Amino acid sequence: MKRPAVRITDVAALAGVSAGTASKALNNTGQLSQETRARVQRAAAQLGFTPDARGRALSSGRTYTVALLTTDSSGRFSIPIMRGVEDVLSAGELATVLCDTRDDPLREQSYLRSLVARGVDGIVVTGRRTEPRPPIDVPLPVVYAMAASSDPSDASVLVDDAAGAAAAVTHLLELGRSRIAHITGPADHRSAIERAQAVAATTTLVGPPLFGEWSEQWGRQATDVVLRTHPAVDAISCGSDQIARGVCDRLRELGRDVPTEIAVTGYDDWPVMALASRPPLTSVDLRLEELGRRAAQLLLDAIAGRPHHGVLELPAVLIPRESTLGS
Amino acid sequence: MKRPAVRITDVAALAGVSAGTASKALNNTGQLSQETRARVQRAAAQLGFTPDARGRALSSGRTYTVALLTTDSSGRFSIPIMRGVEDVLSAGELATVLCDTRDDPLREQSYLRSLVARGVDGIVVTGRRTEPRPPIDVPLPVVYAMAASSDPSDASVLVDDAAGAAAAVTHLLELGRSRIAHITGPADHRSAIERAQAVAATTTLVGPPLFGEWSEQWGRQATDVVLRTHPAVDAISCGSDQIARGVCDRLRELGRDVPTEIAVTGYDDWPVMALASRPPLTSVDLRLEELGRRAAQLLLDAIAGRPHHGVLELPAVLIPRESTLGS
């Protein structure tokens, strides 16, 4: 028996909910009432929707696919975001294709032509920087994750960097630290600027933020500058875990105890840096998987004909460890 | 005008070459004679094969897709391998889907059912460990990359770990070092065992290899053990860059100069470790992109009906830096 494939958007329509809600209900995620969850499950059963794609894909001869377009060649940001996207889409049996543009506009154009030609159902655009980017020009539903579209009528899901940076400084203030310095990345990187502004808005720093690069080496060098210009500093808030690790290394070499003398906070909660640091870093978790999940839910709604507009900011979460709490 | 889609395997058949060779010719990679390259290009022109998929995909209503199935959730190994796979397949306008099994057998089974149902053209299987793995059971062409299939009639592409580890020790011997220790990862990891055996076969070590874990902390701890038991050691060969970075940190803390007193080698050439280390690490580059390219070429041949069998080992490449050469 051949019949048209049932899609999660059909289930959503019958249940009278958005595709994102239908996905959450079938995926057992999100905060839904039991009644909504049950209604979606009844709709899925009635339509013969099953999380096993075999029957559907074979009968329809069509592949449901969503692409994740990224400029992050290292996978440092795109892999956790992709995992979140997959969590949501696999409940609707959509496959996720990762396309790495290697930050090359020609390669991006070539991918977009190919994705449109292949008939993908939608695209999540992400990258390794948080600067707003020009929208991509495709006749498909698109959601931007981590870096917003410069067109405010597009749907973008971002990390609330300002709140994350403020949370780290608030934590230092609550621990009784009052002479705080800020060391961060390049002065032309939006993420460095936003975090520095949020830090300066939360407390009076011992001096202006030190902008440099996203590296351990810069963390070590800037530590020397801070100690020379503000010897009474009792905390250093850093714009990344790499910088914070360099700060901790330099302070240890100088015989200054972390956190007893000087507390240190990182940013990103990148395990390979935050946990290998001595001491392990108090950091700010960007919750990239959650970012991916929310982007996928917005994309499902857009595919179902209910596009969202504007910017959704998700909270980053402070993870306290020994670099502020001690052991 | 509608006509059947021209695929790279059609071009290969007309030119009388394998699909892998056709891909290399159209991709301008590999070592091919000018005559072969020209013959493939003539065949492509004759059949109307174009690297722009639009016409083909639209006229055929079908998506050509290859899946990369991985257990490496960090993307540390799978992202460079995927980049290599894409290099080759994009010349034939095949899309690459990344499927992260999160090392969960049930999730792997679910992915495989879904990929078969979706009609993917072939699968590259990879992971974060080098242990041979049971073959996947699908009616599709499959190539194993980095970890071999336990069925010798399957096609597997591996890094020649033994030669890589031997190259690092040979480099130390050529620099005049003769009292060499080896610090590496867990004794039940094939990559640790293979590297340690190759090191011990290349030189007489000051003592048995020290097996521990893949961490900087273990590198620091094992350094103390080596210095206590073999105070005259003049080089430490390490099974990973993380271990080597820990070794360098500990030696610096003890006031022992690297490399003047003790030379250190890493393994993996992972930039975030090898370049951030003080001093930067001489390491062994696994050439994962090349591994991906070769796996994709073998897969193209298998898709074209010419499967390969057995294990192909690719050389790893020594990258000398300050941790052995000095500055």
UniProtKB/TrEMBL annotation, chains A, B:
Q: Which domain of life is it from?
A: Bacteria
Coiled coil feature spans: none
InterPro entries linked: HTH_LacI, LacI/GalR-like_sensor, Lambda_DNA-bd_dom_sf, Peripla_BP_I
What GO molecular function annotations does the UniProt record carry, in alphabetical order? DNA-binding transcription factor activity; transcription cis-regulatory region binding
The transmembrane residues are none
Q: Which Pfam families match?
A: LacI (PF00356), Peripla_BP_3 (PF13377)
PANTHER family, A to Z: HTH-TYPE TRANSCRIPTIONAL REGULATOR GALS (PTHR30146:SF109), LACI-RELATED TRANSCRIPTIONAL REPRESSOR (PTHR30146)
From the Swiss-Prot or TrEMBL record, give the protein name: LacI family DNA-binding transcriptional regulator
Species of provenance:
Kribbella sandramycini
